[in-house]
Amino acid sequence: MGFCFYFCLRWWRTWTTPFVERRRRLVEELVSLGFVRSSKVVRALLRVPRHLFVPPHLVDVAYDDRPLPIGHGQTISAPSVVARMTELLNPDVGHRVLEVGTGSGYQAAVIAEIVAPSDAPRESWGHVWSVERVPELAEQARRNLDAAGYGDRVTVVVGDGSRGLPEAAPFDRIIVTAAAPRVPEPLLEQLAPGGRLVAPVGSRYSQVLVVVDKLDDGRIVQRSDIEVLFVPLVGEYGFPGEEVGEEDYYPRSI
Ligand code: SAH
């Protein structure tokens, strides 16, 4: 028992401390560069272990601010992009959130840590539904989310997320993490009054983050934030016929 404890502790010190430390440095950098300000987003970024969401051979660069390949021509977004999108989305405890494009599951975990904080009572928890069109990625994302402790706060669904997820609507927040030619109409319909949607909108090779608010009276108000580069959203309300996309890229302005 003591023997096991000793080795567990040694393993924990060797492997966990550096990751925690690297994560802390990365988050400090994102704050100093102005990508993120709110304490709830900072807290979530500090808590979610990004190294559990990247392929094993890339674990060492998990805390660099860059997108990384996750297979099937897709990427886990750069931490600065996740930070900025989460900041714009402004989720809150108890919210019901839809993500389109699960990828690795990392962005979903960051949002889950805000809507259902690990240290808050379960009755107060909200939930994240995340739709992924590639079944193998969805399966890997489920494994990643389970390993990181978010399996019960995020439901991963395989399908065309450009149509939203009518069976779980309405949502307080909707985030699209693939480039869309325009904001998919079904997503606007599935947004609750008072709700907010964030999506990269533009061409295949350049997009801006668009923030859409649905006011209590149902009116839609839209504004633009930073420039980004995401893999394309495909499917009924996405780009036609694209199977493999570009890596998403650092935002060029903020
Ligand atoms: N949020 C992810 C990164 C997303 S990459 C993360 O944190 O890792 C974009 C993802 O969107 C890819 O996995 C791609 O397969 C998926 N995607 C593209 N079009 C889609 C659609 N119509 N419905 C659901 N997922 C889609």
Topology overview:
Layout: H1 2-32, H2 39-47, E1 68-71, E2 74-76, H3 79-89, E3 96-100, H4 106-115, E4 127-132, H5 135-148, E5 154-158, E6 171-176, H6 185-189, E7 191-202, E8 207-214, E9 220-228
Parallel strand pairs: 3-4, 3-6, 4-5, 6-7
Antiparallel strand pairs: 1-2, 7-8, 8-9
The site of S-adenosyl-L-homocysteine has 25 residues, from strand 2, helix 4 and strand 4.
Small molecules (ligands, ions, cofactors) in the structure: S-adenosyl-L-homocysteine
Helix content: 25-40%
> Which fold name corresponds to the CATH topology?
Rossmann fold
Q: Alpha-carbon distance between the termini? A: 52 Å
Please tell me about this protein's structure.
This protein is of the alpha/beta class and 254 residues long. The protein has one domain: Rossmann fold. The chain contains 6 helices and 9 strands, in the order H-H-E-E-H-E-H-E-H-E-E-H-E-E-E. Helix 5 links the parallel strand 4 and strand 5. The structure holds S-adenosyl-L-homocysteine (SAH). S-adenosyl-L-homocysteine (SAH) binds next to strand 2, helix 4 and strand 4.
Task: Write a short abstract of this structure.
With 254 residues, the protein is α/β, with parallel strands linked by helices.
Question: Main traits of this protein?
Answer:
single chain; 254 residues; alpha/beta; Rossmann fold; two-stranded antiparallel ribbon; disordered C terminus; binds S-adenosyl-L-homocysteine
